[in-house]
Structures are given as structure tokens and as C-alpha cells.
Amino acid sequence: MMKMEIVNTKWIATVASIWIQSSVGASYTFGIYSSILKSSQGYDQSTLDTVSVFKDIGANAGILSGLLYSAFTLQNNRRRLGVFAGPCVVLLAGAIQSFLGYFVMWASVVGLIRRLPVAVMCFFTWMAAHAQTFSNTTNVVSGVHNFGDYGGTIVGIMKGFLGLSGAILIQFYQTVCNGDPGTFLLLLALTPTLVSLLFMSLVRNYDTNTKDDKKYLNAFSAVSLIIAAYLTIIIILENISSLSSLARIITFTVLLLLVASPLGIAVRAHREDSDRYAQALLEQRGSKQNPVISSEICTAEDSIEYHELPSEEGQAKAASDNERLSDEGNMNLLQALCSVNFWLLFIAMFCGLGSGLAMINNISQIGESLGYTATERNSLVSLLSIWNFLGRFGAGFVSDIFLHRGGWARPLFVAVTLAIMTIGHIIVAAGFSKNLYLGSVLVGVAYGSQWSLMPTITSEIFGVGHMGTIFNTIAIASPVGSYTFSVRVIGFIYDKVGSGENNTCFGSRCFMLSFMIMASVAFFGVLVALLLFFRTRRFYKSVVFRRLQNL
């Protein structure tokens, strides 16, 4: 009975979500298998970038996952669907897509089936990446539902582990695949699918709230930071000297133990919740046995509460604010599409997520043109997952602190991250020695931050009811921007200046103009985000901040 109680808690649901998020970020490892995809299929750079864009569309255009989540988790629909309802249905749909997409890609690359036409390869690349939106939508929205008072923190945790999953999968690849990117595609077909199938039944929505939620969320955050630090150390060691097979097995085993450690936090959280509930029952029974003392306590509490009641004017103002907040929370997708705030957030994400993703997708090619070794390029891909994680985790955590303490509107942090991204693009364009290490830090952190801030802002401005559909619609800005910058800017300019064998290009001239253009776009995004900040500043102060103070 006790074991069943532990399983049916939001803490175990959070752990299951963390484990799934840690395995489904295969789209962030494109830089590992892009070279063999290019050579085995006979693609030029523009064609490879086109395939990459379809990956981005799949990984970010999650409207279908949002609609499916709403259909199977809203209370009225759950009553009608019965056992065939809940977040697990969405996770199952994602697992099926993930397996089919990566398995067909692997079969084509290794020659199990004949070379696929570009359009067909684009479709299966889209399908494989599209699976990620089903896991991401389920885990993020369920997390916000279970920990609504700390939306920024829980979104940062979920998005953070998704960002780390790229580096975790690459460690798995280096331990098991012995440097064979073809085998890695088979690994990607199996791993996320199996993990999702194993833990999807544990991911559920709970209407509970305890005062110690933040303490244990901080513990989950601490684990994610430890994992990020550990991965960084491993990557640095790999650059200093080549690790033996035994060393890789040991380091990966330690990594798995770290990923499993949130289970201990969930058990402690559940035990404390159970102890608190038992204590409340004992106090209730004690009060029944001592009616005189109970009466005195109630009288004292009534007196205190009487003096703390607000005036009629204050009550009217609070009711007005609650009504306004309720109106925002009831927004569906069509209502959100008719608002100016939606399009300001969309444009800001186009500038930030679009240009950031274009840089991430082309990091291997940029490194090759600047003379980086294969080991250095693989390290850059892994490190980008770490910087991506730090942004996702840090932005949610820090913005929650500023919101709870002073009512700071989150769109201000979007403007800050876009400014950081602008500097990062300029550094990449400069082409000086080892510039990619610094540039990837700035772009990776800023990119990850925007993925954490955007869903949280969506839940606060438009509400949690249709959050999955709305934030996935805004997320379309990422692949649209990635296509614009990857194919129409980076790929086009690269093929124009390339003159070597297979139209290759070497030197800073290959990408300098492209990244100066993206830096200009990112700076425009700063201005758009500032406009959104000024439009929502009063809303955050008078509604969101006041609601948090009244908890």
C-alpha cells in the first residue's frame, strides 16, 4: 500500500518526466550524424541544411502534441475517455514516431534499404524530431500543472534535462558505438522509445500544493547542475587525452547513477508530505479531545483573521484582478492569435530561437571550415548541450526569484538573452582562434534561456488551460527562423563562396557575413522583447505578482 502511495504522487511523476526528458533530446545530436548523412546520401551543404530544417520543424512545431495533450488531459475529456486518457497517451504517440523516424534513417544510411529521395528523408527526419514535442509538451505542461506556483523553476528543470539529454546521448554513443555515427542512429531509434514506454504511465497531473515544493524543486535543480558539471569534466578530459573503453564504461555508469538520483529526492518529499498529513490528523484528533482549548484557539485565530481582512475597496480591487487573471487563463489558441502580445513573443522567438538553432545545426561545418579537429567538433556539440541546459535551467530559476521578490516581468529576461546572443553571433563571425568555444557558450546559454522563458511567459499571459497548444504554436518561430537563416542565409552564402572539392569552404569568410546578419536580427529581437516587457509590466505587477504574494 505504501509503495502504491509513493508511485501515485507528483514527485514520482516529476522523476519519470526527468528520466524521459533525459533521453529524448536526439535532435540536439544532429552534429554527430550529419556528416555520415551528408556523405552516404550524396548531399551538398544546402541539401543537408534543408534536411536539418525539417528536423527543426519537427522538433519545434508541436501544435499536434498540444492539441492531443488538451484532448486527453482536460477534465471533461478525461471523464469521457476513461482509462484511455492522460499524459501517457501523448507520450506513447511520441515513442512510436521516434522509433519509426530514426529506424528508417538508420536503414538508409547503412544501406539496409536503398538511398531515400530527399523529400522522403526530410519526412522521416521530421517524424523522428517531431516525437520530441510530444514528450516535451507532456512533461512541461504536467510540470506546470503540478507546480503552478513555481512555473519558471519546473519549466527550467524539464527544459534543462532536455538540453542535457544531447550530451547524455553522446556519452552513450561514445561508450557503445565506438565512434560509428551510423550505429548511433540505431541507438536513437531504440533508447528514447524504450525509456518513454517504461515510464510514461507514471506521468500524471495532481492538484496538490505544499509549502515545501520549492525546497525539493531546488534539490532537483541541484542534481541537474551536478550532472552538467560532471558532463563538462568528462568532455574536458576527452579533449586532454583519449579515454579507454573501461574508463568510458565507468564514467557512463556514474552518469546513469546521477540521472537516477532524483528518485531519492522524490521518496524524501513523499515521506515528509506523509508525516505532515499524519501530524495534521493527530492535531485534529487532539482538538476534538480538548474542546475548551480548541475553542480558545479558534477565537484567537478568528480575532487575528478579522484584523487582517482587507477593506471593501481592497476586496473589490482583488476581485477585479482575479477576474482579469481568470480571463487570461481561459484564452484558447484563436484568442491568443488575435492578441498583440502573442505576435511580439513570436517575433522575438523567431529572432532568438531561429538564429540560435541555425548556429547549433551548423557548428560542425563552422568548426571544419576554421580548422577544428573532429574531436574538437564533437566536443563543441556536447558542450552546446551543457550551455543549452544552463540557459534553460538558469533562466527559469533566476526569473522566478525576480518575479517572486519584485514582480519583474519575464519578457525583460528575453531581451537580456537576445542581447547576449547578439554578442555571441558577432564573436562567431570574427573567426579568431578558438572563437567557437566562447561564441557557443553565449549562443547556447541564450538559446536555452529562451526555451525556458517562452513556455513560462505563455502560461502567465495566456493561462495553463491551453498552454500546450499556444506555446507550441509560438515554437514554430524556431524552425521558421532556422530555415530562413540556415538555408537562405548560411547555406546560400556558403555555397557561393565555396570553391574546394565538393564545394567546400575554409576560413572565416565562409560564415562571417551570415553571422553578422544573424547578429543584426538578434538585436532587432531585443527591441521587440523590450516592447513586450513594457506592455506586460503592469500585468505582472498587478496580477501575477499579487497572486504570488497571496499564496
Q: What distance separates the N and C termini?
A: 32 Å
Assign an overall shape: globular
Helicity, as a percent range: over 70%
Structural class: mainly alpha
Uncertain stretches of 5 or more adjacent residues: 292-319, 321-328
Task: Tell me the radius of gyration.
Answer: 25 Å
Treating each run of at least 4 consecutive H or I residues as one helix, how many helices? 24
User: For the report, how would you describe the main beta sheet?
Assistant: none
The proportion of strand residues reads under 5%
Order of helices and strands: HHHHHHHHHHHHHHHHHHHHHHHH
Estimate the mean pLDDT confidence. 85
Q: Based on DSSP secondary structure assignment, what is the total number of beta strands? A: 0
Assembly classification: single chain
Notes on the structure:
By secondary structure, the protein is mostly helical. Helices cover 82% and strands 0% of the residues. α2 runs antiparallel to α8 (118-146). The longest helix is centred in the C-terminal third of the chain and has 38 residues, at 512-549. It starts with a helix and ends with a helix. Mean pLDDT is 85; it is low at 292-319 and 321-328.
Provide the fold topology:
Blueprint: H1 2-7, H2 10-21, H3 30-41, H4 45-60, H5 63-73, H6 75-81, H7 87-109, H8 118-146, H9 151-176, H10 181-199, H11 213-240, H12 245-260, H13 262-289, H14 291-308, H15 312-329, H16 333-337, H17 340-361, H18 363-369, H19 374-406, H20 411-430, H21 435-462, H22 467-474, H23 477-497, H24 512-549
